[in-house]
Design goal:
The protein is an alpha/beta fold and 351 residues long. The chain is built from 12 helices and 12 strands. The structure holds nicotinamide-adenine-dinucleotide (NAD) and 2'deoxy-thymidine-5'-diphospho-alpha-D-glucose.
Length: 351
Amino acid sequence: MHFKKKILVTGGAGFIGSHLVRHFVNKYPDYLIINFDKLTYAGNLENLSDIETALNYKFFKGDIVEKNDILEAFQKYEFTDVIHLAAESHVDRSIEGPMDFVMTNVVGTVNLLQICKEKWQGNNHVFHHVSTDEVFGSLNEEGFFLETTAYDPRSPYSASKASSDHFVRAFYHTYGFPIKISNCSNNYGSHHFPEKLIPLMINNILNHKPLPVYGNGSNIRDWLWVVDHVSAIDAIFHDGHIGSSYNVGGLNEWTNIDLVKYLCEVMDRELGRPLGTSEKLIVFVEDRKGHDHRYAIDASKLVNDLGWKPSVTFEEGLALTVKWYLENQSWIEKVTSGAYQSYYEKMYNTK
Ligand code: NAD
Ligand code: DAU
């Protein structure tokens, strides 16, 4: 079968990657989508069980740190484009141990860039790097991150992502390599690993466990439904300018404490518990080291140039997310068994 594009999606078995792979496989039957993933603790092929037999989908188990894995995938599929999501993604883990972040996020990204630069000929290619708003640092109460905001990463995770963005841009400026970058705010939705705030709180509420809020809970994040992040990547991948970056965000800022309280309310209603039951589980714990105060995105470039807009309100997206977790408790049980138990004990039992 002849495919119009053959897209290597790295990290396709993770949270955002699995939503992106499903979207591209279903929407573009004339594209071959190759999910290239190492399957770390954060990668789970069950996230894609509904599309695993699709004719335009392939899985390749590989590590972007290993050049030979990427070369083998190229020899097998001759991919024409890359949407690069594979990363170590959790800030708290980066504080415990930065080196995995350097290896995957920096070295892995440069490996991919180098191999694509060597193999691709002609003009019809795109290397889309999926990055984060955390590269811009931390805001006070005023202002927003623009595409032109100077980089100021402050955690080992954001330093590694900033570094990978710099390499991606350097390949464009130095070699004319066809790159695009998107910098997105905090995502939420189904299949989100329960080390991150929203799924961790949902899991703990379900199990009547304490809800650990870092510091005094006044830190602010801008939350976007993962499906809307995927539609933004689709728009940028197809219609964004080569060499450009685009900010993606939901204009939806919440302090952590307000968000956790709202989630408690939604869960109490869903679980038929008296209102106020889950809120009693909130505990304020030791703050994250170097905790960034506020992230807020100005996505006007994406909205004005590419016509993107979010499809749901936060209340709608969160309701869908909670419903998914309640209907898929076996998924949480599976991903929280084994290694997750020791991570959770190490992170929270001392706080
Ligand atoms: P995730 O941790 O859920 O998934 C990461 C995936 O990458 C997993 O499937 C994992 O197995 C794979 N992976 C890790 N190391 C690999 C390696 N060396 N080789 C191949 N595969 C490897 O992450 P996520 O939350 O889905 O984030 C995906 C991307 O989006 C990341 O680059 C992240 O920086 C970026 N991002 C995330 C958010 C968010 O809120 N989650 C927001 C903005 C940007
Ligand atoms: O902004 C985009 C980034 O969002 C992505 O690049 C990262 O990959 C993603 O993990 C996310 O980073 P955060 O650090 O913002 O997300 P996290 O869910 O870890 O934390 C959200 C906020 O909640 C943050 O202020 C820390 C706080 N928090 C988190 C956890 C896990 C708590 O108060 N308690 C917790 O137990």
